[in-house]
């Protein structure tokens, strides 16, 4: 991005559609432009629900994280690829109850439930895999959407 990026992350997934209880199996690829001192390399499975609130003439859109699982892939070290990207295989087991009601607790959870009841709709959660290499300055990240239904 604008020639300032330190590198990039890509994913290799055999599938983008999953059911609760299945396992997401894939490979995270890191390409760096030069050696980087990384603090941590992680993969996350994130579930986000979009909440739309209408207040008079104003519409407020808010994204609420209803599921967040973080798995470390590697620790503090120098990350550098010479020729081919660095490859990290990962497996993330999707909990069998992941689609059950998991609204946030407290006031925010009550707002989510009230909005769902008012709109007469079922929950719509978008699911993402996010790879992150934590480095000094701006982290190297990539987020891809997967489907869990």
Describe the protein:
- The protein has one domain (7-148): Sandwich (Immunoglobulin-like).
- Helices cover 9% and strands 58% of the residues.
- The chain has one helix and nine strands; from the N terminus they run βββββββαββ.
- A hairpin with a 2-residue loop joins strand 4 (36-55) and strand 5 (58-74).
- The longest helix has 14 residues, at 106-119.
- The radius of gyration is 18 Å and the shape is globular.
- The two termini are 34 Å apart.
Core attributes:
six-stranded mixed beta sheet, 149 residues, 1 helix, three-stranded antiparallel beta sheet, mainly beta, globular, 58% strand, Immunoglobulin-like
In N-to-C order, the SSE pattern is EEEEEEEHEE
Topology, number of strands: 9
Supply the number of helical segments.
1
CA radius of gyration is 18 Å
What is the topological layout?
Elements: E1 7-13, E2 17-18, E3 23-32, E4 36-55, E5 58-74, E6 77-79, E7 86-93, H1 106-119, E8 125-135, E9 140-148
Parallel strand pairs: 2-9
Antiparallel strand pairs: 1-3, 3-7, 4-5, 4-6, 4-8, 8-9
